[in-house]
Amino acid sequence: MNPDLDALHPYPFEKLAALKADLTPPSALTHIPLTIGEPQHAPYSAALAALVAHQAEMGRYPATNGLPALRETIANWASQRFALAGLDSERQVLPVNGTREAIFAFVQAALDRARPAKVAVPNPFYQIYEGATLLAGGEPLYLDCTADNGFRPDFSAVSPDTWREVQIVFICSPGNPTGAVTPLEEFKQLIALADEHDFIIASDECYSELYLDEATPPPGLLQACAALGRHDYRRCMVFHSLSKRSNLPGLRSGFVAGDADLLTPFKRYRTYHGCAMSLPLQHASIAAWQDEGHVHANREAYREKFSAVTDVLAPVMDFPTPEASFYLWPAVPGGDDIDFTQRLFVEQHVSVLPGSLMGRPGRDGHNPGSSRLRLALVAELAPTLEAAERLRQLIERG
Ligand SMILES: Cc1ncc(COP(=O)(O)O)c(C=O)c1O
């Protein structure tokens, strides 16, 4: 087998299961998991109806490019959402089976193994960036995201010598696990760096539609391109998904969009990889991208939850003010995220993800995820609030 497989880290949830394996939680309390980022709100029903209405099309092979109607729907959605002058649905858009596989596949297609192949990733981070890099023969460059830099990578700290070896920079905005949002100006600065040092920007924007202030949606990479008059989106690729926006993680539907010079070879790769989206899923996706009402209602539900949970936790925990995504990223009182996670499970039957499992030791040897927790506020309001109250009890008890 490919020896690079041995370089892959166990997934954070495997490590968490091992940490909890010998622990006995109180049976009198129901278990409340705040661990996996799987939305529990109702899936968008019109998308499910479209799936059923088109089920007979399971009898046909889909094309890698997807249906023109889906690509046009996506191009219209993205143009409107990110104030683009336009997006060519033939050349600049491609449906994918969720952002996870697309991120993984894009790195395989994009990385040139014949020269140094560093891939910059935010630290802590969504683990696929790292796994994709290792399996493509590249080397992850971890850029720490701490309170000091607003939980966003500090690109000015990367030396010109290092930049020379970087082929791809991953941005995750809104961020998992921190919820941090990259401002438009920072996207523009990164584009200037990409031109200077000749790298690709891969912007994972799968949480872009979950934001708390209805008046300020998070900006995106293509929006920054458009603001710069860069309508060919050179060196830029964005990754979007229906999983969080429309509560359809099982549909496996998203899209990539951006530079046609990157998308054309990526399509060639995907033709061989064999990952076209089935036709009923494409019709369901069209229904979802065409509707904003359900997305608005989804945001309302998260807003209500964030407000209730932060009211309970703010007196006892320190966390960045949530702006977007469905995660809270509090500092652990006492500083030991592993110990706290285990005590919370044993005493309160609540599961959270220790921040250190999502990070790696950075430049100074310190893991910027340690001493924080990732709380995924994905369940309905009542259990989420109950979990927050149990967390507070544990802290108040000391
Ligand atoms: C940052 C980030 N990117 C990508 C994904 C993958 O999402 P999907 O493949 O469902 O679009 C996730 C899922 O949790 C995520 O947190």
TrEMBL record:
Q: What positions does the domain Aminotransferase class I/classII large occupy?
A: 32-377
Could you state one GO biological process linked to this protein?
lysine biosynthetic process via diaminopimelate
Task: Name the domain of life.
Answer: Bacteria
Keyword line: Aminotransferase, Transferase
Keyword Thylakoid found: no
Question: Per its UniProt record, what Gene3D superfamilies does this chain match?
Answer: Aspartate Aminotransferase, domain 1, Type I PLP-dependent aspartate aminotransferase-like (Major domain)
Claim: Transferase is one of the keywords in the record:
yes
What is the protein name given in its UniProt record? Answer: Succinyldiaminopimelate aminotransferase apoenzyme
